[in-house]
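ugh ok so i messed up the first submission bc i forgot one of the chains. this is the corrected input, ALL of the components this time, i swear. 436 residues overall. if the numbers dont match what u have on ur side tell me asap before i send this to the collaborators (the ones from the other lab, u know who)
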Amino acid sequence: MFLKHLIINRKMQAILVLLTLILLLLPSFITNVPKLFPSHLVSGTDSGIRRMGGWFGYASGDQTDFNSREAELYASYVQLQDEYLRLKEQFLSVAQLRESRLTELPAVLAVDVIVPWDSSPWRRSFVINSGYEDGIEENLPVAYGRNIVGRISEVGQFVSRVQLVTDPGFHMEVTILPDYNLDTAGVDRRFSGILNGTGEDDCIVEHIMWDVPIKEGWVVLSEGDEKGYWRKGFVLGKVTKVSASRGAYLKITVEPEIDLPLVKNALVLKFPRGIR
Amino acid sequence: MRAFWLVFLSIPILVFQNTFLSRIAINGAMPDLYFLLAVFIALYGPKEKVYVLNWLMGMIRDCLSETALGTWAMLFLLVTFLILHIRDLIVKENIAFQFGTVFTAIFTANILYGISIVYFYSPYGFWHAAFKSGIIALYTALAAPFFYILLYSLRMERLR
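and heres the new structure output, hopefully the right one now
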């Protein structure tokens, strides 16, 4: 009997290990859709448990005052900007200016966060309620007001996963510049580095030389990327600590301005390609 | 009780862990009740089913995470393999044993995952990953006796 169990277990072990290895080796565009499927199931459980928490006085993210109204305001801002450009073009009668400006406007999609956490204690991500049926693509930036929250990492049919800026897999070229309210002397100073998530509540910026005079409170902004997904000027956070790292570089700790686990709504931005 | 019901029970536990228990997290490390359930299954579940059960639980964790599909499933299988080899040799009802098994199992899985993070992304060094793994394991091991008393009271020791 024991031997029989042992044989069954050995076979089962081998099958499961083989199956898992195959899954690990499959490219992400194949696994993304089935991988995101259980999010539907979990989002209902999540909202139910949060509601129960509300009865017991648990704050389920009410501190976050950002809501769909801000999404609407942002969308109307984009529309007004569009209209402004058209009027300006008519006034100046410069057709070329009109075309170039209009193509720079991003398509904005307001989304809700349906699973606001990642099941692994080492990673940081959340699931939104839009997928490729809504025009979502991998690598699109996700914003919260003027702040960058993360980027789309997995796309399903109706849901997608957003890799947060604090996830260890998140890397981005950034510029650090002074907060002009605090440091008016440093108007012409700006330094570029690479921002990495840590898997905790902050990020670090690396590859900035040790003799650079960066101070706490300076602002970290995004740089554009070569593929045209990102634009310059979105806020990633503020410098909270500057310390020496190994070698000739500084280790700069950056904290996002918003509490990422409490984000309930966000905006997916789709810029026209080929323009930085 | 049918053992496969535990897979469905695991989802509310996962949600509870990531909503309520995340409030007491230290640097992102919090009690991992979900993993605790997997260790419970490996310790007390029917031998012919524990691999499938824990593999399914690993797959659910993968589906709800940024990680590649299969990563946690593999770690859950590894932990199940280790526990199955020792479970007949020791007294499972002993609190010290429960604490030790949970700590070792969770530390092993997390340090392996932490090393992969350090290797591929290097947001911090090995010692930081080891410290975080230790905190997660300690936190979870402290909760183990209470959690297992709760599961016994649901008569889950009679899994089939």
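quick check: Chain B touches chain A through 50 residues (CB under 8 Å). that seems consistent at least. The two ends of chain B are 6 Å apart (CA to CA).
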